[in-house]
Each structure stands twice: as C-alpha cells, then as structure tokens.
Amino acid sequence: MKQYIVDAFTSKPFSGNPAAVCIMDKWRSEESMMKLAMENNLSETAFIVKEETGYHLRWFTPGAEVELCGHATLASAFVILNFYEKGENEVRFNTLSGELIVKRKGNLYEMNFPTYELREIPVTDEMEKAYGTKPIKAVLGLDLVCVFENEEQVRNMKPDQNLLMQIPGRIQNATAAGVETDCVSRSFGPKYAVSEDPVCGSAHCQIADYWSNVLGKKEIYAYQASKRGGYLHCELLENNRILLCGEVVLVAISEIVAEL
User: Fold this and answer.
1) Are residues 109 and 124 located together in one domain of the fold?
2) Are residues 30 and 131 in the same domain?
3) 88 by DSSP, 3-state: which?
4) Is 260 contained in some domain?
5) Considering the entire predicted model, what is its pTM?
6) In CATH, what number is assigned to the domain containing residue 183?
7) Euclidean distance between CA atoms 217 and 206, whole angstroms
8) Looking at residue 96, what is its pLDDT?
9) Can you tell me the distance from the alpha carbon of 172 to that of 144, in angstroms, rounded to the nearest whole number?
10) Which domain range does residue 232 map to?
11) Is 120 a catalytic residue?
12) What's the CA gap between 32 and 26, in Å, rounded?
C-alpha cells in the first residue's frame, strides 16, 4: 500500500500541516486504520479507496476517526491529481461530511467545504484557566472558537491540555484579529490525541466565517500561528459553503509493508 507524506497550507517542506495519505485497493478494518494512524502519529492520516461512485475518503487522528479534515483533504487531492488522475484538475471525494470537491488552480488547491451555524456561548472560568488568558467571546459550531483581544495573546498561549479536555467542543480553537493577515489562530485537539493541530482547515470553516461577519469581508486571509505555521485563503459563498485554498508540498513516498 502506497503512503504519501504531504505538507499542506505551505509552499515549503517541513512547515504547514503534515498529513499521511494512504491509497488502498479495498477498505481495511477500522482497527487497522486506527493502528496505522497511531503509528504515523500525525494530526491526520487519510485513507482513500476508489469506488464505483468515485473516491471515498476517511480521516483518522491518532485517537479517532473524524467527520471533517481540511489539510488531509488538500493533501489527498494533491496525491490523486498528481499521481492517479494526472490529466484532471478536479477531484470529488465521498466523505462523512458529504461530497467534497477540490480543484487545482495553478499552485493552489481549492476546497469547497460546508460552514456551520455558530452560536455564542458564555465565556467561563474554565476557558480562562485552560488557555491561561480570558477570551472576550466564545462561539460554538462544529468546534469551540474562543476569541481573544489581540494577536500576541494567541501567539504566546500555552494552554493546559488537561483542562482543555474538560471544555465542550470537538477542537478548541483560539483566534484573534491579525496585523498582516485578517486573523491569527491556533487549534488544539487533546480529545483526539492532537495537542496542537499545526494548520486546521476545518476550523477555518468557522474561524473565517466568524471574521467575515465581524470584518464585513467575503475573503479572509488567515494565518495559523503554530510552531510550523501556515496560510489559508478563505472565501465565503452564499449557500453556507466556503472555499479554502492553500499550497501543498510532497515530502515522502513510502510503501506500507505491514499487514493491515
């Protein structure tokens, strides 16, 4: 089984968000895929099988299968369009979040993703303790998004992973208005055995949506301020959808020889 290591949302290797992309001729058991995701120990391992209706894509963290992942979808599209469908500039994936379409546009790969209804929830003492600084606002959609007063608070944040486990939300996101970009964020997922996701595409379905409304802009240029760092071009559409664009870099191609 071929496995590709791809860095997403970056133009330089060893930055952005790494994902493993596994191309399979048939589905293996969830236990086997979970074991390989744990072995890779990346924030996401993508598994792809070509079926009669197209490519079926699933995502696994080292802790669980998830219903949506941006950077591993970007990485998967790069692999399919450059190694398996070389004459094509578009690929469609069947996923737990429905059909996801990715288009190649020059050096960028553009994903069409859903947005999620965001509802404001109270800022709690637990949030302040977990992040080490108090949010000025909190909204909940697929993830919990905490908004802070300034970019420095987000960049210098050292959250308590154990306390984050006690806060509601799939992944805990911290975000603030940026200086050189429209917003700066970080993403934490201890519930999925991911202490910090380097660049989270699915989180920006909510982060970009939030800042689009605050700033009155349809296009949001975002930076995720993890140690690796990465940039996302986001465009809000009219039908509760969002375009997420980024560059991709291939790091390695390997062969999985262990029996799955």
Assistant:
1) no
2) no
3) coil
4) no
5) 0.88
6) 3.10.310.10
7) 14
8) 95
9) 5
10) 119-239
11) no
12) 13
